[in-house]
Specification:
The radius of gyration is 20 Å and the shape is elongated. The chain has one domain (22-211): Alpha-lytic protease prodomain-like, CATH 1.20.1510.10. It has 212 residues and is mostly helical. The chain starts with a helix and ends in a 6-residue tail after the last helix. The chain has helices at residues 2-49, 52-74, 79-109, 116-137, 145-174, 178-206. Helix 2 runs antiparallel to helix 5.
Length: 212
């Protein structure tokens, strides 16, 4: 009877893991679709308004969409595979940071005042979408490195959403494009900090003995 009980327990564990994997895939697909839609919206709004912070946020959403696609491929995979993908996610965030730095450099050479109305509407839509994604991913934030890194990206998106709204309000209050550029620079720092955290977490998973 004991062996049957153990066998049944193992079977139940496999069922629980399978159900968890299905739930994770479903959540990742939803946040992926939301990020792609938000990315397209923000690129369009950034082009119309001339906002650097909106464009920075759009590039961040694009990078996140790529990481969610990668996350979908490794749901249910080994810890090593998830760690390698998490490492690649961190490098993607670094790539987004480089793109943001390039945009900021161009805008510093040719500063302009963004259109507040377009910038503000896009910023609020972006924040609402980011809060939805964070809420969906929060139950998995302490899970494996794959889902925790996805949650990390989403949390950064919420911070970015509040930052862009602050930039829009500052542009309206001061009638200047400099607050927009300053927020874009702060987002650049956020990207670099996030990339470092994700890469360090993945490195610990891949090389546990070196971290002892």
């Amino acid at each position: 009877m004991e062996s049957k009980c153990v066998s049944g327990s193992c079977c139940q564990d496999r069922i629980d893991v399978a159900v968890l994997n299905v739930k994770q895939r479903r959540i990742l697909i939803i946040v992926l679709v939301v990020n792609i839609a938000t990315f397209l919206m923000m690129v369009f709004a950034a082009k119309i308004s001339g906002s650097s912070s909106l464009l920075s946020g759009a590039l961040d959403n694009f990078g996140d969409a790529m990481t969610y696609i990668l996350s979908l491929f490794v749901v249910g995979a080994s810890l090593a595979a998830k760690a390698r993908v998490a490492m690649f996610k961190g490098l993607l965030i670094f790539g987004a940071a480089i793109a943001v730095a390039f945009v900021i450099g161009l805008r510093l050479l040719h500063p302009e005042t963004p259109v507040f109305e377009t910038m503000g509407i896009a910023a609020f839509i972006n924040l609402a979408a980011n809060l939805l994604c964070l809420w969906l991913l929060t139950p998995y934030r302490n899970g494996d490195v794959n889902m925790s890194s996805a949650w990390e990206c989403s949390r950064n998106d919420v911070g970015e959403g509040f930052a862009v709204i602050a930039a829009a309000l500052a542009v309206w209050a001061f009638g200047s494009g400099w607050p927009d550029l300053l927020i874009a620079i702060s987002l650049l720092i956020l990207f670099l900090w996030s990339a470092t955290r994700v890469i360090c977490g993945a490195w610990k998973e891949l090389h546990p003995t070196e971290m002892q």
